[in-house]
Amino acid sequence: MSDQEDNSDTPVVVKDNRIRIEISDGGGGEGEDKNPRLSLTTELLNEMDIRFNESYKSPYALSPEDVNKHNLYCLNNGDNEFLPEEKQKQANVHVHLHPVAPPRNVSRKQNTDINSSNSINDDFSSSAHLTISDNVNDKSIRIVSRTSSRIQRHTSYNVKSLSKDPNLFLGKQVVLDKPQISTQYENREGKPEDNCCFGMGWWSLTTAIMTCWIPSFMLKKYGGMTSPMVQKAWREKVTLCLLIFLLCVLLGFFTYSFTTTFCKKDPIPTFSITEVSKYRTDYKPHVFIIHGDLYDLTDYLEKSGDTYATEIFANYTGKDASPLFRRQDVSTYPKSCTDLAKKNKLTMSTYPCTVSWSSSSTMLNHCFTIQKSMKFLGRVTYNWDELQSGNRILINGKVADVSEYMKSTSKFLGKSISSLLSSYTQRDATRKFYQTEDGINASQCISELFPVGQLNHQNSGCFFATTAMNTSVFVILLYVLTKFFLAVIFSWLISHRLGKLEKKDTNKPGMVRSTSWEDLESPFTFGRDNDHDDTIINNQSYASGLDAPSNIYLDEYGDIYTVLLVTCYSENESGIRTTLESLSKTMYDNNYKLLFVVADGLIKGEGNTKTTPEIIIDMITLDKRYPPVPIPQSYIAIADGTKRHNKAQVYVGWFNRTPIVVVVKCGTESEQKAAKPGNRGKRDSQIIVMNFFQKVLFNDPMVPLEFDLFTKIHTLMGITPDLFEIILMVDADTKVAPDSLARLVAAMVDDPMIMGLCGETRISNKSDSWVTKIQVFEYYISHHMSKAFESIFGGVTCLPGCFCMYRIKAPLDDGYWQPIISHPNIIQDYSQNVVETLHEKNLLFLGEDRFLTTLMLKTFPSRKLMFVPKAYCKTMVPDTFPVLLSQRRRWINSTIHNLFELVFVRQLCGIFCFSMQFVIALELFGTLTLPAAIIFTFILIIVSFIGPVVPIVPLIMLACILGLPAVLVAITSRRLVYIAWMLIYLCALPIWNFVLPTYAYWHFDDFSWGETRKVQGDDGAGHGPAEKEETFDIKQVPLRKWADYEKDRRRNLTEKWETNIKKWKGQLYPIQE
């Protein structure tokens, strides 16, 4: 049948695989065609996306002007092969087309170009209504078609013709900086360990050697470790603990014994003149220097009974008493002195026995001789700085004080020697004295008559040890001070630019958006049992947008489609509701944000009367276009054995006018009687979302769950999921500040090189108990010093999972997209399901969030991970010590293993000591030696109070480490209350630096969440069995391309269309306006 044969007697004809329906527009003058033919493909029954001609570029716009042209309208993406030729039918169906105004929520731009509607950058927005009336059942089914200029603005990013590119999907193209990895669901194992000897890797060999003294039968018999995997984990834990202990011992050796070990010890003890001068009568009484040697006169004073000795020596200590022991008989002078006197024909003189320790005493002028009862302690040494005073002179390593000789009138050493002494005081005169024979004799004479000590010289070992100690002190001080100053610079100069929002002029047209039902409602619900008009009313009541939070800031910060991911496990209703309400009330357009909640299994938390999914579903308004209980869809989970096959239900609707998708992991039929059906862990929940966006961007084969998500998100939001660019991840017990989402997005928009962000996490229950109080300052300083310092380099090493943001894809300058968190390499490593070593288990089971940050830094070392202080959230922290102990066990172990991963990333910014790699290595060493460090700190404080010498440099280091955070608070935030919180934190340092790390190290092989998350009926088995008992068959879960799923879906719709055509034939009539 040709078009000419088609007439008004046959209003509905199926020909050329198209359903042609004659309609009347109720207007037109004589001679005009009052029966323009509307050509609709079978897609009408679901999507109702209309376009005009085959050449029309914008699939989402319908111009009322074009409706009046009586053109042939064709449905977008129509695949006419779905209607077999042998099934062509005729039916009596009348459809009326109502051109209407654009939805009020769509912003328009003034466009004077008449032909702009045919451009891919078209911003024209409109909608149309098609109404089918059923006079038998007294029903009117309205079909809504609409568009949004926002979609087309995103479409304009694709500036190249890439229709044949395999990575092209829905008009967007993504590019990879590395070859694309296959996304097949094989077992994803970690990197194989290189075999070094005996068929074992270096780590396995080290573990075997260090734990060889513990046979396996003892672990099995006395430790209850029957599983080889458990025994292996225990051996690895013991090995790590031994290595940490060795590191602590090494730190203690370096602190207290390194210098003495490498310095060559003199058989005679030596004492520094500075050290001796600080002796006190209550600590080192009766200790004096005599001719360069140190003597203890305690026994002498007790035995002699000499009143002069008692007066002079009893009340003093640490003094140089050499003048009191001078020779008073020139015949006892050394031969070298008498020879020079004879040669110069001069008379030798004696010197008085007197000292000037006190002007009030008249008995400091008595001569003594060295007695056996005077205990010899050692020799006194001078360094170069101590030599620079008085008339001290250095000759052949010995220090002499020639003050008395220079004052005397008898210069028996000769004029030349006396002149030499005047010129070389406070200097080394060895070379000058050893140039002549008289000089040699004079040096011997001076060294015996006026000795006060010897030069403290270092051998090569001492020089090395001293240099190493000074270098380490310098590096630590440099690191601490640099960290402080860069944190201040970040706070003063950089932080205010991150997430900066500028108020927009709301009086300008097209700048204020609201959410309307037309933008959220799916265009068609043909063939459903529920009343469509009721659906409209209910949806409008919850999504009208009259009171919805609007984006009051610059328009460019609010048109980025963002996913708000909330992962739930066993939280209570109050916590979940608080999180969802805070996200829905963020000052960000509801049209651009999608709440995405993943419930990790049918879990009933401790104290809850409902399961977590039931709590969530009761909070939202379900979309009535879908069944109230969705069909569980299969997907491949992160687990072992048969647990890799899991099922999940997808609920869609609205929460406080914000679109929401809830994925409930309900498990397969075989695990419904288990304690935690469907539970696979938080990482699996994140992978569901990450895998979904990877499949969307690359058009990779999907599992049924992913196609179900695609269809429902498309229906709910009116856009295809590939338009989402950013994902915000929060935990289900977090309350996000109203402007935080807009600030994080603004930071992303301002700098395309940023791939991840985090805000500040504050504590909402600060004063609940002493456990919460000691955490306040720790949370504050970890953000405003550690993360601020790392942000200077663009490498924050941990974006906390309770409040962080990542890019799903990043725009490139040439119009292409680069996948970020949806990058195959990221997902490949993050979805590893075969985890065998202790290192991998600590990475993947305890520190998912930190490990994801580590993967981002390893995959994109040139991109940035930043901290935005203006964006913040509040969360509940543990208020009892067992819960804190369990939480910090996971965090500390995760930190250690993630820092170990980052140490080997050479592409991080900087070089050698001025690099992030070196900083990470320093952080790793500091974390491992925390217990030893706190012990050495207390020893330092005790020695400073009771020791003879105050260790100045270590105290300065300690003051910098503990005091600079207070200075940072004072000069940056000016919230002085945090100084009080700091004092509480310092009082709890033994807990932070000794109790928690020690407990964590000994529980390296504990991969559970412990006291942090308790559920009813939990047997402690985790997400699955420790060992694989059954093999997973990949064929249980279908993997198909989106186009294949879509063809089946449209084929089913065609069959429903044919059924309804038969049912309504002859029972429909046209609607009169």
Note down, in words, how this protein is organized.
The protein contains 34 helices and 34 strands. Strands 20, 21, 22, 23, 24, 25, 26, 27, 28, 29 and 32 form an eleven-stranded mixed β-sheet that branches. It is an alpha+beta fold.
Summarize the topology.
Blueprint: E1 12-15, E2 18-22, E3 37-40, E4 50-51, H1 64-67, E5 74-75, E6 90-91, E7 95-100, E8 127-134, E9 139-146, H2 149-155, E10 195-197, E11 200-201, H3 202-210, H4 216-222, H5 228-256, H6 258-262, E12 270-272, H7 273-277, E13 287-290, E14 293-296, H8 298-304, H9 307-313, E15 319-320, H10 335-344, E16 375-382, H11 384-387, E17 392-395, E18 398-401, H12 403-407, H13 415-423, H14 430-433, H15 437-449, E19 451-455, H16 460-494, H17 517-520, H18 532-543, E20 562-568, H19 573-584, E21 593-599, H20 612-619, E22 621-622, E23 633-636, E24 645-655, E25 658-665, H21 682-698, H22 704-717, E26 726-731, E27 734-736, H23 740-750, E28 754-763, H24 770-792, E29 803-807, E30 809-811, E31 817-819, H25 824-830, H26 838-846, H27 848-859, E32 864-875, H28 881-903, E33 910-911, E34 914-915, H29 916-928, H30 930-946, H31 952-973, H32 977-987, H33 989-1002, H34 1042-1064
Parallel strand pairs: 12-16, 13-15, 16-19, 20-21, 20-26, 21-25, 28-32
Antiparallel strand pairs: 1-2, 1-6, 2-3, 4-5, 7-8, 8-9, 10-11, 13-14, 14-16, 17-18, 18-19, 22-24, 23-24, 24-25, 26-29, 27-32, 28-29, 30-31, 33-34
